[in-house]
Amino acid sequence: MSSHGLGMDGSAGEKIPDDLNTLPELLSDEGYTTACLSPSPYISEATGLDRGFDRFTRLSAKRLLNAANPMSLMKYALAVRSDGPGFALNYRRHNLSFIMSQMAKKWITELSRRDPVFLYLHMPNPHHPYTPCNRWIEEFTDEISMTSEEAMDLVMNVFDSTESLNEHMANGCDFSSDEWDAIKAMYDAEVRDADRYVGELFDHVTELDRDTIFVVTGDHGEFFGELGLLGHNLALHDAVTNVPLVLYGVPDLHAGPDDLVQHIDVTRTIGEYVGCATDQFQGIDLREGTREYCLIQRGTADLDSYTEYNTEFDESRFFESTVDCLRSPQFKYIEGNKKRFLFELPDEEYLVGEANPQKEDEMATELESLLASLPDWSGGAQDAEFTEEMKERLSDLGYV
Question: What is the reported pLDDT for 6?
Fold first, then answer.
């Protein structure tokens, strides 16, 4: 993040610099046909992350009729009772995963006639407000005290807006055990839904009998009360930074399931493997080695947006400035605002810096050295250009 600056202002309010190549641009130079399906304004023309894609479509519930292909819409209409919410008028109840997976399979079938092809699919779920399709709701709510309708009403209320989310966190996420059970059940149902669509897409791709690299990962996890938080803002806890990763189709990987891996390592590994290596990728080639530490960063936070709801909100646990974090298998070191925290994992509640001053200083020195070694590509960045519809979507997702 600090190299290109995108996201360090806390809102991803800048475009990626023009002189920084994106992976699809590099793959295009190697003869790849590139395509992207995204539901996120952060992955769009607004931030410049559409660059390099020969085919790019950004979907949202409000843009479906204009952006989705008619066949996918027809299939969704026929399946809306099971793979959607039924005939709900509230657009936030409609999960885009079904339509996006249908479009992705259609695109892959069409593009597979060419050689080679790169497709990036940004699945919209699981993500709050956790509105899973009807297919899974009963299965995941049958052992909680609330009915499925009550659970749906709860998550729609809690995650109604950024303001609602912030107010709940400012007041300590004071939910009853029954309410927590309902929130987690709705999230689990969305995870099950996403698992289904990813599995179907993998089966579809591998049945085409092509040499295939298939990557599954997440951009963040979710808080469910850790540090008194919901969603995925404010802190660099493992609840939001330790995400799933599957890398299929790249042989001779040196890294194993228990090793530390960053997303940039996956990008670097694929780039090296397919022949578009670049010094822009600071990661490591996972076919050659593993890393001792992971670098994690987060942009500025507006703590006033929490204290306005509760003046007793404990700001001391968080950083208002940009935050840099170094994580090893055993320790996590975090610094910002002239504060520094050291945790011994898996605990991330009690500070252990006073008991381990040598380890804290060691990790502080390592972090400083690592940050100093990063190139600076942040010059010349322009403001992102979000439309009103994009801003509304970002608010729905709890970002602005």
Answer: 66
In order of 27, 108, 177, 242, the CA distances from 202 in angstroms are 21, 11, 37, 23
Topology of the domain comprising 23-292: Alkaline Phosphatase, subunit A (3.40.720)
Q: How far apart are CA 294 and CA 258, in angstroms?
A: 13
Using 50, 70 and 90 to split pLDDT, how confident is the model at 379? Answer: low
Does residue 5 have a pLDDT over 90? no
For the question of whether the overall pTM of this predicted structure is more than 0.85, the answer is yes
The Cβ of residue 177 has, within 10 Å, a number of other Cβ atoms equal to: 9
Q: Which long-range contacts (CB under 8 A, 24 or more apart) does 25-29 make?
A: 25/51, 25/52, 26/52, 26/271, 26/276, 26/278, 27/52, 27/118, 27/274, 27/276, 28/52, 28/54, 29/276
DSSP state of 4: T
| Residue 19, amino acid | D
* Structure-token match 């320790």, residue found: 331
What whole-number distance in Å separates Cα of residue 180 and Cα of residue 372?
Answer: 43
Conformation bin of residue 172: beta by default, left when phi > 0, alpha when psi is -120 to 50: left
Task: For 230-258, give the DSSP string.
Answer: EET-S---HHHH---EEEES--S----TT
For residue 279, what are its two tokens?
């010094």
Residue holding tokens 């919901």?
230
Long-range contacts of 254-259 (CB under 8 A, 24+ apart): 254/286, 254/287, 254/288, 254/289, 254/290, 255/286, 255/289, 255/290, 256/290, 259/290, 259/291
pLDDT > 70: percent of the chain: 92
Dmax over CA atoms of the chain, in Å, equals 63
CA atoms within a 13 Å half-sphere pointing along the CA-CB vector of 94: 21
